[in-house]
Amino acid sequence: MENTLEKLRQQLAQSQPPKARANPRSGGAGGGNPAGNDTAALNAEQRGAIGDHVRECWTKDAGALNIDKQRVMLTVTTDATGVARKAVVAGDDIGRLGDPRFRAFAERAIRAIMDPRCANLPLPHNVLGKVNVLTFRFSP
């Protein structure tokens, strides 16, 4: 029996170093840019085209008080094909969600981005193929 075990050990012994590469270092965002935002990769014309596209789905509450002074910053995550999959209020604006008027304004902005007619963002080809995290600043 001892002899059989020794033969098996010899057969299974590694004779060459492993050929696989080491795992990549962990950390960074869940996809896309490890710094967390891909907006900087877009030029002004590209950002304008995205804004024009989403504007088609934007609905403004004309009766809202001081609507022209409202602004909201959103963080939008797209999939590899450029479709918006998640939109959330970002930065200091999170603290303003307690104001019902601001909350309604922010929810309209999120609905505009997530609307099936506008969620397929016109991203340039060089940023497609990976998850992207973008910053949107909405103002009427």
Could you name the ranges where pLDDT drops below 50 across 5 or more consecutive residues? 28-35
CATH architectural label of the domain at 50-140? 2-Layer Sandwich
* Global Rg: 25 Å
Q: What structural class do the secondary elements suggest? A: alpha+beta
N-to-C CA distance = 83 Å
Helix content: 25-40%
Mean pLDDT: 82
Question: What kind of sheet is the major sheet?
Answer: 3 strands, antiparallel
Taken as a percent bin, the fraction of beta residues is: 5-15%
**CATH top level label of the domain at 50-140:** Alpha Beta
- Alpha plus pi helix count: 3
Total beta-strand segments: 3
SSE string: HHEEHE
By CATH, the topology of the domain at 50-140 is Fusion Protein Consisting Of Minor Coat Protein, Glycine Rich Linker, Tola, And A His Tag, Chain: A, Domain 2
Task: Describe the structure in your own words.
The protein has helices spanning 2-12, 44-55, 100-114; strands at 72-78, 84-89, 132-138. It has 140 residues and is α+β, with helices and mostly antiparallel strands. A hairpin with a 5-residue loop joins strand 1 (72-78) and strand 2.
